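Sanity check

After download, print the first record. It should look like this:
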Amino acid sequence: MAKACVICEKSSQMGGGYSNRVRATQFNPTGKRRRKPNLQWATLSSGGRIKICTRCLKASKHLSYKK
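Expected structure tokens:
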């Protein structure tokens, strides 16, 4: 299964850290977690299907994509 957008190469990133409550009390810190892109199946004009992020899907970049 694809873990990155075929068109814009968007992939997972590390993010997170401390919440506002933790900053106030220095209690129970939260760790970083991996954030994954929102990938959806999109049908190409040639009839094929690829997994792309919703940002590219909303911009209709899959209609002009050549496999």
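If your output differs, re-run the checksum step. Summary of this record's structure: The first strand starts at residue 13 and ends at 16.
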